[in-house]
Amino acid sequence: MNPLIRVRDLNVHFPVSRGVLFKRTTGVVRAVDRISFEIMRGETLSLVGESGCGKSTLARAILQLERPTSGRVYFGNTELTGLAPAALRQARRYMQMIFQDPYSSLNPRMTVAQIVAEPLLVHGVATGRQSRKRVAGLLQTVGLSPGMMHRYPHEFSGGQRQRIGIARALAVNPDFIVCDEAIAALDVSIQAQIINLLKDLQRQFDLTYLFIAHDLAVVKHLSRRVAAMYAGRIVELADRDRLYDDPQHPYTRLLLSAVPVPDPGARAGRHAESPAADPASVDPALVDPASVDPALVDPALGTVPATGCSFSHRCPLATDRCRRDAPELRPVAEGHEVACFHA
């Protein structure tokens, strides 16, 4: 199986400024830090992690909606990070995104027909009668009536709006779709419908997904492989079944222990992982300690670790080596990589 997406040593850093009139850069937030992975053609790779760990920034950097600080992203044999704006615009036809919030991702002043047809017009795929025919077919594909195309977004429920967003993403026949928390804002019953729809569309159109979520219970039914992300880094990457049956990184075990279990007996027998400390709203491991101003460090969080594992300040297994050295992703079994000295 050939990779469709290849990410190599990707970094996305944001400057931290201080001052009102005369701003100066006092630090760097490492939202994405030295990430490398591949997504095979036709597969679903799920990216999981708590809010603020850099999942959406990584997805936007892959699509070049956020230009990386360094590193490379390949779509097939094309390096996206080196493309000129005109060439990048053409490449984006084959890469689309389904956004998290179906309420704010649709223009309230446009009808459904205009929303779904906009990518067709932008990329010069279809106009006029051909465009309307394409929109009607897309609405049927995602489970909506073509008669709804002249309505506005406020006339639809959340699940219906997300179906409209999916139809828009499919309009230009993409190969790769990023689902950025595409079901997080929906009711549980609607989430199941959207997941089943995404699986059906993948089989029908041979799509490749990067599915971003923070709920491991959801991604289990959709993904082939799962990557756990923490503080801008991927800490574990494995086949779905292997990761659920034998998680190696303490953070992955922490995520799995938080998944609700309806059976009280199973819940009582499950080993619960507990972090050594609560996560900070802004993780200190994301800040570049070489340039950070000490006045910006919250005393309640302690000092910012200069080196070491990004999870060491919360990990119950952390040792001096963990605080001193940053572990790299390494194979512990076939198709299973972990960034942990204790794996």
Could you explain the architecture of this structure?
There is one protein chain. The protein has helices at 55-62, 85-91, 112-122, 128-141, 158-170, 188-205, 216-219, 240-245, 250-257, 264-269, 320-324; strands at 3-18, 24-40, 44-48, 70-75, 78-79, 95-98, 176-180, 208-213, 225-230, 233-239, 330-333, 336-338. The protein is α/β, with parallel strands linked by helices and 343 residues long. The strands form 2 sheets. An 8-stranded mixed sheet has the order 6-7-8-3-9-10-12-11, with helices on both faces. The chain has a 4-stranded antiparallel sheet with strand order 2-1-4-5. A hairpin with a 2-residue loop joins strand 9 and strand 10 (233-239). Mean pLDDT is 86; it is low at 276-283 and 289-306.
Order of helices and strands: EEEHEEHEHHHEHEHEEHHHHEE
What's the alpha carbon Rg, rounded to whole Å? 21 Å
Low-confidence stretches: 276-283, 289-306
Number of helices: 11
Tell me the strand order in the biggest sheet.
6-7-8-3-9-10-12-11
Q: Roughly how many Å apart are the termini? A: 28 Å
- Main sheet record: 8 strands, mixed
State the helical fraction: 25-40%
Give the amount of beta strand, in percent. 15-25%
Q: Average pLDDT value?
A: 86
Structural class: alpha/beta
Number of strands: 12
